[in-house]
């Protein structure tokens, strides 16, 4: 009796297997569905630091560079009094012709946090953590470097300002500081 049940179970299993293979063989159409998302890579964006303005009180104490890349630079020299500061306003422009760009608050590399405090002023869109720039549009970021300790003289301390940009629906990626 046990042998007969095993044979019946084996027969049913083989029948199911034959039917499955036969059904698959008879199906000749292959249907693939899905979608494709196309987004810009950060390296494709043409959002750059295009210009700068040195605040009048800071003239002669700071040099700056904004040369059409995703990083700007400023070098502080000649400040020696506690709480003395320099201020530079950098212009950011979206040079793309067909895409809006989201610009996040630029970050400043400060390798001397003991002697200097760096603050930025950047206006974002209402209820957002970024500023939307239409093609050809500009915005600004003001960088203020304050001397915190009087025993230090700012002998050519450099600061790099890096930008984070993206197009809508793209994961933001920090631009490399140059």
Overall body shape: elongated
Instruction: Quickly count the helices.
Output: 1
> How big is the Rg?
31 Å
CATH architecture: Sandwich
Q: Return the average pLDDT rounded to an integer.
A: 75
- The SS-based structural class is mainly beta
Distance between the termini: 83 Å
| Portion in helices | 10-25%
Major sheet characteristics:
6 strands, antiparallel
Number of strands: 10
User: What are the secondary-structure elements, in order, as H or E?
Assistant: HEEEEEEEEEE
Low-pLDDT residue spans: 30-41
Model description:
With 178 residues, this protein is mainly beta. It has one domain: Immunoglobulin-like (Sandwich). Helices cover 14% and strands 39% of the residues. The protein contains one helix and ten strands, in the order H-E-E-E-E-E-E-E-E-E-E. It has one helix at residues 2-26; strands spanning 47-54, 62-65, 71-76, 85-94, 101-109, 116-122, 130-133, 138-147, 157-166, 173-174. The longest helix is centred in the first third of the chain and has 25 residues, at 2-26. The radius of gyration is 31 Å and the shape is elongated. Residues 30-41 have low confidence and may be disordered.
Short description:
By secondary structure, the protein is mostly beta strands. Helix content is 14%, strand content 39%.
Please give the structural blueprint.
Blueprint (H helix, E strand, L loop, with lengths): L1 H25 L20 E8 L7 E4 L5 E6 L8 E10 L6 E9 L6 E7 L7 E4 L4 E10 L9 E10 L6 E2 L4
Antiparallel strand pairs: 1-4, 2-3, 3-9, 4-8, 5-7, 5-9, 6-8, 9-10
